[in-house]
Amino acid sequence: MSINRKRVGEVWLAHEGTKERPVLVLSGGIVKFEIDVIVARVTGQTSRNKFDIPLTYWKEAGLKKPSVVRCSKINTIQHDELFLKLGELHPDDLKKVEDTVRSLLFKDFSSEI
Prior knowledge:
By secondary structure, the chain is mainly beta. It has one domain (3-105): SH3 type barrels. It is built from 1 helix and 8 strands. It has one helix at residues 91-106, and strands at residues 3-6, 10-16, 19-25, 29-32, 36-43, 52-54, 68-78, 82-88. Strands 6-7-5-3-2-8 form a 6-stranded antiparallel sheet, covered by helices on one side. It has a two-stranded antiparallel ribbon with strand order 1-4. A hairpin with a 2-residue loop joins strand 2 (10-16) and strand 3.
């Protein structure tokens, strides 16, 4: 059985459909071949809303240009779609992302509708 390790906070290039894009790993530990990895999209575009987190330390994360983690664009992909590790988020950037994901997943937005 194939086993691969991915860690929370790692930035990887991934195959998403016909496109290759950077993603941030949000689930970690030992991943067996039949289990998906939870990721968030990373983009070089500007922030669109409060759930887009600009990375202060984008160079240290292995990214080529200033980037944003789209916390509202969480997805699962098979671990073998992650083909090149670019780097890891700085702890300050990772904390901002984790706090934003938590607020997105656990906040009651019904009063805002």
